[in-house]
Amino acid sequence: MAHFRKTASVLLLVALAGCAPQTPYERYTSGEVMRNYPYRAGASGAQTQRAITDCQVSAAQRVPQQLLVQTTPTYVTPTQTQCNRYGTQTICNTTGGQIMGGQTYTSDANAGLRARVYAQCMADKGFRAVDLPACPVGTPLTATFTAPTLAPLARSSCYIVTPDGRTMIGNRGA
Question: Quick check: is 25 in a domain?
Fold first, then answer.
């Protein structure tokens, strides 16, 4: 019995590990595109982070959360009774009658507007949201990747994530 519990525990951990979100490095090595990266040629990492924080705070102050609590519709499944006779006995089985739905959930009615205010703020600071492809694994770190500021975008622009989680943007072959 102890062996069964140990095996079941290991299988459960393996199953749960499959549900864990990927790290930035794992997303990079799988070739995933980096979506909506705030990009401004000549911006340093510190300037980018400062702009992101300023715009997040500004958007949160200008468009506060408006939480809506809602409930999904409820319904009762149809009941059905089926009876069978076995000699002098009648055995009936009723199915259905379960109450379905009725789940309560919360949503933020202002989330979309807040996202637009954030995007406007970033645009006012000269940033634009870009999608960057992952550089092929093993791309050498050239000068554009190690520069303290972002180089102008080019067709060869891509991103690299190091195993320790640092993200760098540059141009292949430059």
Answer: no
